Each structure stands twice: as C-alpha cells, then as structure tokens.
Amino acid sequence: MEAYDRLAACMSNYDDLAIFRRFKVLHCRNLLLMEAELIHKHDALVTAIARDRLSDDPKRKQLSFNFRDLLASPDTYDDGSPSQKQVMKEIRPLLKDYGTSSHSVIDFFWVAVCSEFLILYQRLCELPPVNKSNLSRLWRLCSKGPEYRPFFEGGEYFTWHKGKAYDLTSLSGRTRNRDMLSRLLDKFITTVYHWAVGHRIHEQISVDASWKLEDPVDMTHYPDHYSPAVVDGLTMILAPILPATSIFALYFIKDPLVRMGMIVLLSFLFSATLALVGVPRRLDAFAATAAFGAIMVVFVSNNTDCGC
Predict the structure, then answer these.
(1) Are residues 32 and 66 in the same domain?
(2) Which is it for strands 143-144 and 109-114: parallel, antiparallel or unpaired?
(3) Which domain range does residue 136 map to?
(4) Based on the domain organization, do 18 and 147 belong to the same domain?
(5) Distance, CA of 218 to CA of 141 (rounded, Å)
(6) Three-state DSSP class for 255?
(7) Interval 92-145: pLDDT, tens
(8) Which residues form the DUF6594 domain (predicted)?
(9) pLDDT in tens, 237-273
(10) 88 and 172, same domain (yes or no)
(11) Among 185, 211, 237, which residue terminates a domain?
(12) pLDDT for 176
C-alpha cells in the first residue's frame, strides 16, 4: 500500500495532482446494457397488451379499459405468458436506475430531471480534462528510486499513463478555459525554467509528517498562481503599448496604400493578442477588433486631412 499512501499524501497537499480515471467506457457499457434490457421489457409489454386485446377471454380484453381489473389480473396466464401487470413490475426497478423522472419548476417551465446513470455520465463528461504537465509529475510519483522503478504492477501501472489521458480528469479544474499564454507559460516553467534554475530555487514536494514516506519525493512543485500572475502583468503592459505603438507606426507612414495594409496587419495582431492573453467570446473578439480598426482609420483620416 506504500504506493497509494504516497499518492494520497501528495494529492492531499497539492490539488493539481488530484488526477483520477473516469472509466467512461464502463459507464457507457453499463448504460447500453441497461438500455438493451429495457428495450426487451418494452417489447414484452407491447406483446402482452396485444395478446389481451386479441384474447377470446372478455376479462383480458377489458384490461385495456379498466385499471381495477388490471390490478386484479394474475402474474401469468394458463399458457405461461406474463401479464401486463407482471411485466410492469419487472420494468419499474429498471426505470428507477435508468429512467426515473422527477419534475421541478425552473423559469416557469416543467423540466424533467431523469436517469440517475445518464446524469452521472453527463457529469463525468463535463469534468475538466487532465493537465499534461501535472500528469507527467504524477507519473513520476508512481516510481521510486533514481532509476524510477514502478510502484505499481499489472493494470494499475497504466492508470496514469499518458496513453490514458483521454479518460483522466484533473479535479482541481484549473486547466479548463485557460488562455493560450498561460498554457505556454506552464510548458515553459516545467521544462526550460525548471531545467535552468527552477529545480534549485523552488521547494520540493513535501507531505505531512505523519505520512512521511520511506522513499522521499524528489520533485519540484510550481504553484498554479505563477502563470496567472505573469499573464496579468503582460496584459497590463500590452494593453497601452499595442495601441500606442500602432499609432506611432501609422504616423510615420505617408503612403496611403501602405497605411491601409498596416491597419489590416495591426488589426490581425490585435486579434491574435486577444486570443493569446484571454479567452474572449467570438462576438467580443470581433467587436474589439472592429473598434480597434475603426480607431486606426479615424486616426489616419485626421492625419491625412491636416496635411501631416
């Protein structure tokens, strides 16, 4: 159990290492089998209803119109076929697991909240994807010694393998909707920066004294707030510099065609910067880029009119 003790101690101290399997294929298979079972029960119920309607027994024909007679009907008939009541008894527990529905009022509309397993799978799919750099560090934690011998054996060894990344999730959720610049900085910090100076000046992963490991963890930890702080700083610098630089560049260009080409280029650069330092909606990015281009055109027009 040393391997799981090691992982539990590290995950509890560092949320970004809390990476788990979703087992989506097992959930899908379970849903499909339950669905298939319900399909067969549905067909059995339709068959039972048809038999009652076509029966020569007047009591069985009456079952489609009289609920009291349906409740009083036997579970099986003399020919061994199940009754409607018996089939529904078999369907109810399946519906409880697969398709139980309850209703709640949201914005004055009735919304069906159904299927425990379907909702569970939906929530599994909505979990954030795994952070590749954190997965690499967790994979190292699954090894011991300078030669990185694996702690786990058999199928457990591949639980956090990079080939299983499609089925893994980072429960901290900090990697969802991160801007491109933050992801690039994360990659830079855990590779180039770590190789150059990071491993010497940053703290190593540590655990609670009561969970002290026999084989110490030799791994540097980089808190998640490093990248957002750098991105915020770069955003504050780029926000005034980009428009000012664009105005200066257009001021010294006299050829109208070159100016128009420069406006197109600067607008593209502005849009690319938006995508790099943030996660704007398409409409917001379009509106901001259009406004930036309009300001450049107004500046060029005024500059041309004054004969500068």
Answers:
(1) yes
(2) unpaired
(3) 2-22+127-211
(4) yes
(5) 9
(6) coil
(7) 888 777 754 433 333 333 233 345 677 778 888 888 888 887 888 888 777 765
(8) 4-297
(9) 888 888 888 888 888 888 888 888 888 898 888 888 8
(10) no
(11) 211
(12) 59
Looking from the CA of 279 toward its CB, the CA atoms found within 13 Å total: 9
Q: Considering its fold, how many domains does the chain have in total? A: 3
Q: Are residues 28 and 117 in the same domain?
A: yes
The CA distances from residue 207 to 112, 151, 212, 218, 223, in Å, are 46, 18, 6, 12, 15
In order of 8, 12, 113, 207, 304, the CA distances from 212 in angstroms are 12, 13, 46, 6, 73
For residue 221, is it within any domain?
A: no
Tell me, yes or no, whether 196 and 50 share the same domain. Answer: no
Same domain, 117 and 132: no
Last residue of a domain, one of 211, 244, 260: 211
Task: Using pLDDT thresholds of 50, 70 and 90, give the confidence band for residue 187.
Answer: confident
Which pLDDT belongs to residue 193?
82
pTM of the model: 0.63
DSSP letters for 46-69: HHHHHHHHH-S-HHHHHTTT-HHH
CA-wise closest residue to 46 among 58, 38, 34? 38
DSSP 7-27: HHHHHHH-GGG-EEE--HHHH
Tell me the C-alpha distance between 295 and 106, whole Å: 44
Could you tell me the two tokens for 283?
Answer: 């409409």
Distances (CA, A) of 261 to 9, 251, 264, 294: 58, 14, 5, 14
- In whole angstroms, give the CA distance from residue 277 to residue 289: 14
- Residue 64 domain-assigned (yes or no): yes
Q: Rounded distance, CA 288 to CA 242, Å? A: 13
Q: Are residues 14 and 144 in the same domain?
A: yes
Nearest-Å Rg of the Cα atoms of the chain is 32
Token pair for residue 46?
A: 């339709």
Summary mean pLDDT of the chain: 77
Tell me if 218 is assigned to some domain: no
